[in-house]
Amino acid sequence: MVGTHKLSDVFFVSSNIHKFKEAKEILDSFGLSIQFFKLNLEEIQSNSIKQIAIKKAQDAFSKCKKPLIVEDDGIFIDSLGGFPGPYSSYVQKTIGNKGILNLLKYNRGAKFVSTITYCDKNGLESFEGKLDGTISKSQKGKGWGYDPIFIPKNMQKTFAQLDEKNIISHRYKALKKFSNWYLHK
Ligand code: ITT
């Protein structure tokens, strides 16, 4: 394809197909194509999603030995001191959105953070994207993970209800930084 960079040898390594589908749509829009490599990655316990992403990338590279990216995300809720943050995946599987809604009262501020880590034989590079917002009062729309309860700043709808999620999200912002770097390296 004219003008399209082939990233066909770069893999998005994850156990989560939703993350891959969104990352693929976003990277396609930058003219980069990527493939899915489904793997359950070792996840260390850390307060830093960047450190978790770096460890995941090292684990992934030791297994697939190809240029790759991994992503680690967290939703950080102000009134809960940033919880669940690095534990977002575990909390989604345990108490879920209902459990989160039961914990919140008036202060509903939150942010989504994504760290994308690229790894090849020459080393690692990480990119971060953040998006401020609020937690809705009830679940709205059908979506994965925290999408039915996260309302981006200056919006009236949850991620699950928004058509433009993939041009405003934490994932979009991190992947934009990654692609600018990748295309110029
Ligand atoms: P990996 O195999 O790639 O690690 P994972 O699902 O465990 O997949 P994370 O450790 O990054 O990924 O977990 C972050 C969790 O945050 C994820 O499982 C979702 O529940 C939630 N999450 C992240 N991005 C989201 C988004 O855009 N919309 C809704 N929920 C999201």
Describe the structure.
By secondary structure, this protein is of the alpha/beta class. It has a single domain (5-184), classed as Maf protein (Alpha-Beta Complex), CATH 3.90.950.10. It is built from six helices and seven strands. A hairpin with a 2-residue loop joins strand 5 (109-120) and strand 6 (123-135). Helix 1 (17-29) packs across helix 6 (170-184). The longest helix has 16 residues, at 49-64. 41% of the residues are buried. The mean pLDDT is 94. Inosine 5'-triphosphate is lined by residues 14-16, 19, 41, 71-73, 88-89, 92, 144-147, 159, 169, 171.
Question: What is the structure about, briefly put?
Answer:
The chain is an alpha/beta fold and 185 residues long.
Largest β-sheet summary: 7 strands, mixed
Broad structural category: alpha/beta
**Could you tell me the number of beta strands?**
7
Shape: globular
CATH class: Alpha Beta
Average pLDDT taken over every residue:
94
Fraction of residues in H or I helices: 25-40%
Through-space gap between termini: 21 Å
Hetero groups bound? inosine 5'-triphosphate
From the coordinates shown, what is the CATH architecture? Alpha-Beta Complex
CATH topological fold name: Maf protein
User: Tally the helices: what do you get?
Assistant: 6
**Tally of discrete structural domains:** 1
Low-confidence stretches: none
Order of helices and strands: EHEHEEHHEEEHH
| Portion in beta strands | 25-35%
